[in-house]
Amino acid sequence: MAYQGKKLVNDPNDVVTEFIEGLVETYPGLQYLDGFPQIKVVLRADVLSATYDKVAVISGGGGGHEPAQAGFVGPGMLTAAICGDVFTSPPVDSILAGIRAVTGPKGCLLIVTNYTGDRLNFGLAAEQAKAEGYKVEMVVVGDDCALPPPRGIAGRRGLAGTILVHKVAGAAADAGLHLADVAAEAKHASEMVGTMGVALSVCTLPGQVTSDRLGPGLMELGLGIHGEPGAAVVDLQPVDVVVSHVLKQILSAETQYVPITRGSRVVLMINGLGATPVMELMIAAGKAVPQLQLEHGLAIDRVYTGSFMTSLDMAGFSISIMKADPAILARLDAPTRAPCWPVGVEVVGDRPPTKIPVPVPASNASSKKESIVSEPRKLNELGCILQVAIEAAAQEIINLTEKLNEWDSKVGDGDCGSTMYRGATTILEDIKCYPLNDAAETVNEIGASLRRVMGGTSGILYDIFCKAAYASLKQNQVISSRQWATALEASVAAVSKYGGAVAGYRTMLDALIPASEVLRERLDAGDDPLKALLLSSEAAVTGAESTKNMRALAGRSSYIAPDLLSSVPDPGAMAAATWYRAVAQAVESKFHPSKN
Fold it and tell me: Which residue from 86, 338, 500, 545 could staple onto 77, CB 3.0 to 4.6 Å apart?
């Protein structure tokens, strides 16, 4: 079903104008020509046409592709950018105004993406400027590799690879080359690059209704950047598969979009289309590099990842591959103050390895792990009990994963179950290395496992919990039920001290505090230790359930409106109660198997 997209704009017709105003306020090295609304030109603040002694490099196109092209204006890159309305080629008068504003005696190069409107408008402006006495050359970039070789006059569309051409041309101009040489380098660069994009959603133009052609579970291959349909609509695939398809399409030997063969050195650009998180772009980059190296036999000299040429709020990305040579790399590495060109990409010397081993300090636990792995373990009674209890607790947390995520999606950030799942599965993997005959060391190792994989607040709190228990337990050669109770009290106290929560704050302590109190009370009253443990586990569950009626005073839930918390238990408390109860039931089963 189509719907009106939400936008943080004023008048939809003024979005490009207001973008330019914000851009130049943000970056003092940029200016714009005061000719709104018809003239929308961003230019370098340090360039005056009458005195500029280098070739001016000018590009432009419709709005909606930000940061392209205006975000790449600056020394070492573009001298000016001509902006049209959203997805609309800039008019001839705007292009002429930009040429006149920045072009000195050495002339200007127009870099134009291969769309009919851009070619016509920039072409007419170039002819008019020549008639006025300016030296003008024009290079058209068509790097799209999604469509078959052109049979008509339209040709391949200009996509994100154009930004690499901007950088090459801008650096060449900044080095003082003549216009013909700058144009030749730009043309050569444009012939070395190929691009293909994929989309997960359709973009929404300001003030317009969003198309619903891409439903749930679908993606588009070979998209354009103006909201037009792609070459094909397919089922959503894992990023590995998507990246593999795009790379094969760009590097296809049949179509020969780019002159890249095995053994070539290349530059890779992963470009976000406007609504793609940096996380997903980096995942794509991390998958593309080894595929290019191992499957296509290419050497990767540079990787640029970010949003360079977008399509408003489209979700998806494009991949550009440019054949590299020393001259192109020198231009890409040349300094620039264009605000949106990425910094920190140049590699000095050989590219360092992407992975190095994690330094692990020597410890008693490590040596114990090595001996346990190298020879079969013989578990004493305590070791057998701990193994059963730990495995039961971890398995119950795994079973509760979806429910924990469901609760957390209502009162937090929705990942409590996934976080606890990582901890539980890691414990099940690591348990073979735990010194189970040594209760204190085992608890300490559990904390280390959780800290390693859980991260965030929960990971560190559980590690604190285990460290406090370890400090309490290691003082005793033989561990009694009362010493376990003391260790639990120490753990609760440590979590409260460092986490800042107490009973009633709607945290995991609302399960663990009542459990600890009941365990101590029943042991002091002379109850059988197993009975005391079971009763304390019931208290943990009751305490966790009671969080439904509590106002959150700690954690992410404290930012949630109280009415949204009602009837939803705290996920952390429920997780704590679940593993605690699983431990109690596992120990009961170990001692009284006939009851289960």
Answer: 338
